[in-house]
Amino acid sequence: MTTVVVAGGGIGGLAAALSVSSQGHRVVLCERNREFAELGAGIQLAPNGMHALDRLGLAGAVRRIAVPVRELRFMDGVSGEHVVSMSLGERYRARFRNAYVVVHRGELHRLLLRACKDSDRIELRPSSEVVGYEHAGQAVRVLLSGGRTLTADALVGADGLHSAVRARLVGDGSPRNAGITVYRSIVPMDRVPPDLRHRSVTWWAGPGRHFVHYPIAGGRSLNLAPSVENRPAEIFSGVPVAVPEVREQFDVLCDTAQRLLELATEWKAWVLVDRDPVDTWTEDRVALLGDAAHPMLHYAAQGACMALEDAVVLGDLLDCTSAELGARLRRYNAARRERTARVHRLARDSIGLWHAAGTAAVARDKALTAMSLTDLHDHVAWLHGARDFAAPDPAVPPDPAVPSDPADTYTLAGVLDAAGAGDLRGAAPGAYTLGGYLAPPERPR
Fold it and tell me: Where in the sequence is the signal peptide annotated (predicted)?
């Protein structure tokens, strides 16, 4: 039996362990902390993420604890006006063959951890931080803190944004400071006034900032996450922040948004960071996964989904002997790099959508208001509708109510209908579009 070491016991690492072990491999899952646990608040899981969980055998359990979202609501955060909503009801679920749900990050982690504990092929090793690796012929020597080592047939680095495995494999230094701080708080739903309770993900867009909220924990809590472009000088994570400081940063938002922000009695802050996409995240018998491979801003709400997709593809490709592992890991890298780079670009470009000001905000609201439900579903189809996660350009499911139009032109951020494409032909890079900014296609380096 081949042995695969997975570095990192977060959502991506646990999913990778389950997927790889399903091919008959022994998996040793190394976590640096004394306990396997996950920090954070809410996670949005679009149908592509739910399909990945289906493949891992956990979607049913997730559905029992998740809140199905009825719609994505986009509000003008300054005027308080409703701009557009994308229904996630029967028509959306029929097209994308799964629901859009929100769940507490800790609850999803516990489900994955329980499944790993139930597997006789997965060994969990807490207090075992992976600090590096060495190639050893037809094996890899995994270096642990304290001078300990493990010898394995392969190593998967799922050790997150500050991955030690990536530092050795890619060597691209520290993450990029995006100049944005996000504040997070969770409020018991019984403290939320009835008129502010919505089974939706709601965005309040304002100049240089926005505020998103949605129910989690089976609807028992409300997750609040405002973010602002305040150019912090240093990167920090999970730092307590005084309530007045947060309120002051969002005082330009409308009364309804202010009422929601007033519900929070404590806040923690994170500086948003990412890294530029890279072309290669494998080296012989070593590969990266999730945030270690392609860390992205959370503005596309796809970080966890991409890690789950990675895990499914990795497991599918490792139906092989030890001798074939290096070649299969290279295939995994090739299968995933284009799609993850595309989502990475969408996350960065979304800043322009959420944080537009002045005439750009007016143009944004006008463009969004003009979109039909079919337009909105088309816009996310390439992302939410994917079920073949190894395809760089997966087939997009047609709207069950409207025949697909072969003249539709897909852009990086979604779809432009025939008229829209005509309006934008010849537009210079940097021109504003619904999905962000026109630019030459981003390629991993």
Answer: none
